[in-house]
Amino acid sequence: MLSQIPNILTVGRIIVIAPMIACLWIGGETFRWIALGLYTLACLTDYFDGYVARAYNVQSTMGRLLDPIADKLLVGACLLMLAALDHIDGWTVFAALVILLREILVSGLREFLAELRVGMPVSKLAKWKTTVQLVSLGFLIIGTDSPDWIESQLIGEVLLWIAAGLTLFTGWDYLRSSLRHVRSQAE
Question: 87 to each of 80, 93, 122, 143, how far by Cα in Å?
Answer without folding.
Answer: 10, 10, 29, 7
